[in-house]
Amino acid sequence: ASIWVYTLQLPWQLGADFFLRLLLDGDAASNTLSWRWVVGLHSVGKTYLARAENIQRFTNGRFAPKGLAQVAPPLNDTAHTTRPKIIDPPNRYLDGHKTGFLLHSEDLNIAHLTHHSDCIASAVYRPIDTDTMLVSSPKLLEFNNATLDAAAKHWKLNLLNCYDVDSLQAILSWALENKLEQIVTPYAPVGSTSQMLEKMKSLLGNNGIQLTQVMRAYDIVSWPYA
């Protein structure tokens, strides 16, 4: 990241986007914050300068780059980090309603959701839209599908009548076919999955179906102190 910004003089946003499209287990939050940290935007004024001697040392002499930037001045940005605040959880789970469960790659540990007894159908979200997935590498898509396969196998006793869905319209069709009144899914805070869920919330709402994103209790308590 330091070489990208200070030696190649490219925008950090472009580098962050490039990384997120290629990292197998890329995370929108940590990826963005890491790039911002390098250029002095997260820990304001503190930057990271890539040094040739460090690269040579920690690669056992395999790489000894020349011409690296000698200074790393902090960048300016109009976006500011906000102070920790109390989390306002998404919609509450509606008891006694016909419920469908949606599994997505943002959070594959659904132990906190398996106690709901109203679930009559399940679906695994496997997007094929590369704009939604931020996919630039076939390996990334393969990795994403492999993790979903593993999770679906692990939770198979909890995923009733499970289907694969690959788009918002497919999710809506699945919900209508099963006469669902709400869809429950793990909470996604930021990134492409979060953006997809916001669009899905509106689409489902127009058809009388509630989208319920469920947060873990310890996330609600601990995140304001992160």
Topology (elements, then pairings):
Blueprint: H1 2-7, H2 12-22, H3 28-38, H4 52-58, E1 99-103, E2 119-125, H5 130-133, H6 138-154, E3 162-165, H7 168-177, E4 182-186, H8 192-205, E5 210-214, H9 217-222
Parallel strand pairs: 1-2, 1-4, 2-3, 4-5
Helix pairs in contact: 2-3
Descriptive notes:
By secondary structure, this protein is an alpha/beta fold. It has two domains: 2-58, no CATH class; 99-225, 3-Layer(aba) Sandwich (Rossmann fold), CATH 3.40.50.620. It is 38% helix and 12% strand. The protein has nine helices and five strands. It has helices spanning 2-7, 12-22, 28-38, 52-58, 130-133, 138-154, 168-177, 192-205, 217-222, and strands at 99-103, 119-125, 162-165, 182-186, 210-214. The chain has a five-stranded parallel β-sheet with strand order 3-2-1-4-5. Strand 4 (182-186), helix 8 (192-205) and strand 5 (210-214) form a beta-alpha-beta unit. Helix 2 (12-22) packs antiparallel against helix 3. It is elongated. The two termini are 24 Å apart.
